[in-house]
Amino acid sequence: GYRRVFEEYMRVISQRYPDIRIEGENYLPQPIYRHIASFLSVFKLVLIGLIIVGKDPFAFFGMQAPSIWQWGQENKVYACMMVFFLSNMIENQCMSTGAFEITLNDVPVWSKLESGHLPSMQQLVQILDSEMKLNVHMESMPRHRS
User: Fold this and answer.
1) Which residues form a coiled coil (predicted)?
2) CATH number of the domain at 1-26+97-138, please?
3) What is the distance between the alpha carbons of residues 1 and 88, in angstroms, rounded to a whole number?
């Protein structure tokens, strides 16, 4: 998903602006999402353990086990695989921000974290063109000594 988008942006930018240094890194999600992912990781292991051992957690609460639990007891391998893969999918979704920052000469020009969305390739090229022109203009201005 987002890694591929970053790599595509990186490829286009490096072709158009070969002198620009491009770096990417993962940004941590908000703490609530990290906590949800941690909880799911532990819950997944407990649930898989209960499925394998055959203990009915619903009986502990005086409840009748739902039909999905009955199915899981009859199909332990499939149930464990489903719990594992579904939980991993949700954990990965919680931990993925898909965010990357774009800077030019150590000056931020785009932040998905601040804007909440990714720029289109056209927007990004326009932003970089504007920044490059501004930098060239600033460098060509005479410097006044104070």
Assistant:
1) none
2) 3.40.30
3) 16
